[in-house]
């Protein structure tokens, strides 16, 4: 159990209660309400076999897609991402690049087993959209390991701390604290936030992130003619670095590369990997509107592209997209992003994509779910004041389907002024019908604005003459948010023929309760533009399916 004091005691209690074994089996029977088009309300009492069948079908289809993506990834020259079983205990720390200043907020050491301490260089990124960002900076360090490693994070800045914790809570990391040093031992990779009490609630003014990577596998040869190899140190390449089919871009730990990697047309069999950093600060104009004209740091927009892997790299200070990789058969694995502008999205893959074990700290949408047959699992999100942690639609004209989003953590969401922001959001003004979304086992720790905003509605970037579509077959189950929200949850369509329909809120916990009707969940459901909106929970009190 995490060591927490004072204000975090309530979270400990909630986590303990929700993880306890219930007296009876999880899942059915359920109790709740269904809200239908025209104002009808019916009682849910028992099972929901139609919804269960959809969820099972999505899960089965997603598992097949993961296998299909892996088969394509295996054809890449350096496509390995998972260490082999029995990998020996090891620890790799990386040098600080010359010309890049170390953080003045924190220092970090790592110790493998009973070995000696090794310093792990700590970077710092300054807040860029200072008129709305409430944080001042973000520090981070990165190392790779297997075996038990003890991490010590020292707070260097003025002001005494009273304790520390590590997020996400689901990692169940125990800490000790003394003399402004937070100490903890880990044996599994993870993307972690180390927070010193009392500054553990939004806004955390000086975040400290620890990217504890697995050991690298399939490291490219620097002499391979199909590899662009960047060793430790600072490299300025500039924008417009063309990605070519069959190419591998490798950034070694300690590499700090100022670049934007783009494809002007379709590409195939491309790998971008390593433990280095890509910085987009050189493209930042300091102006929100002008930044929209900048490229993404990985920008593959042609959906005719195939078989792409982005793995291990940290992307910071991008003025636009971090990773837009619209290739079919895309893997985005253990990628880290830190960005500050309303125009800086986190990541999106194309049709048949796996977004896995990533860390996203973004001020636009963190994970976009637009192109179908997408799996997003094991990700950790720190949402700034704009955008959504999970964005379901924004002016989409295609008809994508089958998204499985599960076992993710939202550790902070700093929404505080933009009305329609939410953890789960659809602002669907497109002509497409998007369907078959299964969100399962999502944990939200420190957010208090809004959990759901699902709407079909016009916006200033859309031409109504193109028409409107619908949202259909969306399942939210085992969503556990441990705070109280200021804004109501919204479900509304455009009109009677462009509906939000067949949406299920199954065992959703927030505001200190497990929802079983619209009032308990503080929902605003427009029954003139929606149909079959279900809010229900397990009758055994477990709030688990």
Structure description:
By secondary structure, this protein is mainly beta. 7% of the residues lie in helices and 45% in strands. The chain has 3 helices and 42 strands. The strands form 4 sheets. The protein has a 25-stranded mixed beta sheet that branches. Strands 3, 6, 7, 9, 12 and 13 form a 6-stranded mixed beta sheet that branches. The longest helix has 25 residues, at 49-73. The chain is globular and about 65 Å long. The two termini are 24 Å apart. Mean pLDDT is 94; it is low at 1-24.
Write the layout of secondary structure elements.
Blueprint: H1 9-19, E1 30-35, E2 41-46, H2 49-73, E3 90-93, E4 106-112, E5 117-120, E6 122-126, E7 137-146, E8 149-155, E9 163-167, E10 175-178, E11 181-186, E12 190-197, E13 208-213, E14 227-230, E15 233-242, E16 248-251, E17 255-263, E18 268-274, E19 277-279, H3 288-291, E20 298-300, E21 306-311, E22 314-316, E23 323-325, E24 328-333, E25 336-338, E26 347-349, E27 353-356, E28 359-362, E29 367-368, E30 374-377, E31 380-383, E32 388-394, E33 401-413, E34 422-428, E35 433-444, E36 452-456, E37 470-481, E38 489-492, E39 500-510, E40 513-514, E41 523-525, E42 530-538
Parallel strand pairs: 7-13, 14-16, 15-17, 16-18, 17-19, 17-20, 18-21, 19-22, 20-23, 21-24, 22-25, 23-26, 24-27, 25-28, 27-30, 28-31, 29-32, 30-33, 31-33, 32-34, 33-35, 34-36, 35-37, 36-38, 37-39, 38-41, 39-42
Antiparallel strand pairs: 1-2, 1-42, 3-7, 4-5, 4-8, 6-7, 8-11, 9-12, 10-11, 12-13, 39-40
